[in-house]
Design a protein that fits this description.
This protein folds into three domains: 7-101, Acid Proteases (Cathepsin D, subunit A, domain 1, Beta Barrel); 107-258, Cathepsin D, subunit A, domain 1, CATH 2.40.70.10; 268-353, Pdz3 Domain. The protein is 8% helix and 47% strand. The chain has four helices and 27 strands. A hairpin with a 5-residue loop joins strand 4 and strand 5 (54-67). The longest helix is centred in the middle third of the chain and has 10 residues, at 170-179. It is globular, with a radius of gyration of 22 Å. The two termini are 24 Å apart.
């Protein structure tokens, strides 16, 4: 798992590569792979990213893809044009393995053992009928499963390309944002770079605490869900931290075999985070109502120092982007920054728990 993204080893044309697993996506190969192997181009496609910028993608034919001991011949793939731009290049991956690879199989994710399994023989997996729920394919081709949110039965897609544990659908999210007062966090800043890696404008994002999610006989309580992603409701790769997940495409079952201990669900923050944009470290987002917000930190403020260290010394922006910057693992932080009017300020903050 890299930044809540599932990454596996894939063999392309006899060479080992790393690919993201996305049950809601399609096969994508990097431009670097296309340059290396010159796959046959069979079509061109245009895709709009989060910033509504259209990117032209080539569709190519990949002769040989091997996942474990599974071999796939002549697979259609889109070519990703921007693998070498920050932060896309931080993942160190060469593409995406999508839903067209998961037909008539059982696919199992065991995060603790860092293993993904593909099989057509259910007998080789230990599966408990009491830990399963019905699964069908949605109109978009994603696994759709039955579950309960705060006691209400719903059918929701499982999208391993999403890093969240659970996301509400857009219509529900809008209602919750306007009605909910307690256990709601509001952020302002940027949260995604999009396919084009163009700097997006500032926006608002919300998180709300979900009382109970019951899925395949397992209950997960008191966790935060993001309310700001315009999408269908979905279960994401965050579920892999809670147990072994098995998708039975043959018999239409979704299994969750819970681990003995749950991950820490506490949200701790200084009320802000940073990002490298156009080679400059700035405030990425601010949690409204936090001490950071009260101190005057705003999205876009240029960072000069973190705990007395010049940010120019932060040489590995990818490590911070993927794993969180080192100051986020401490109990207090002193941040020196430049305001929008050019003033230099220094603020000391203590980490808060939500």
């Amino acid at each position: 798992m890299v930044k809540n993204t599932i990454v596996i080893e894939v063999n392309i044309q006899g060479e080992q590569r790393k690919f993201v697993v996305d049950t809601g996506g399609v096969l994508i190969v990097s431009q670097e792979l296309q340059n290396t192997y010159n796959f046959e181009i069979i079509n061109k496609t245009r895709v709009s990213d989060i910033n509504k910028k259209e990117i032209a993608f080539k569709t190519v034919l990949v002769p040989d893809i091997t996942i474990g001991n599974w071999k796939f011949d002549n697979s259609k793939a889109l070519v990703e044009y921007l693998p070498d731009t920050y932060p896309n290049n931080c993942y160190g991956t060469d593409g995406i393995i999508g839903r067209d690879f998961f037909k008539d199989v059982l696919m199992q994710f065991d995060f603790k053992r860092k293993v993904m399994r593909l099989t057509k023989n259910p007998g080789v997996l230990v599966l408990d009928p009491s830990q399963r729920t019905r699964m069908d394919l949605s109109d978009r081709g994603l696994p759709e499963i039955e579950l309960f949110i705060d006691g209400k039965k719903q059918r929701i897609e499982f999208d391993s390309g999403s890093g969240d544990l659970f996301s509400y659908k857009t219509k529900t999210a809008k209602k919750l944002k306007s009605k909910t007062k307690d256990n709601k966090l509001k952020f302002e800043g940027i949260f995604s770079f999009g396919v084009s890696s163009k700097e997006p404008s500032s926006s608002e994002r919300y998180m709300i605490k979900v009382k109970e999610l019951e899925i395949a006989g397992t209950k997960i309580v008191d966790f935060y869900s993001n309310l700001s992603k315009p999408s269908a409701p979905r279960i994401g790769a965050g579920i892999l931290y809670y147990g072994v997940v098995t998708l039975d495409y043959q018999n239409n079952w979704f299994y969750l075999d819970p681990y003995e201990t749950e991950p820490d669900k506490t949200f701790e923050s200084f009320g802000f985070d940073i990002a490298k944009i156009n080679d400059v470290y700035v405030i990425k987002w601010v949690l409204l109502g936090s001490a950071a917000d009260s101190a005057g930190l705003k999205f876009g403020h240029k960072i000069l120092k973190i705990n007395g260290e010049d940010v120019a010394q932060i040489t590995d922006g990818c490590s911070g982007y993927l794993n969180g910057y080192g100051f986020n693992r401490q109990g207090k932080v002193v941040v020196d920054y430049v305001t929008a009017t050019g003033q230099i300020r220094s603020t000391k903050l203590m980490k808060e728990e939500y």
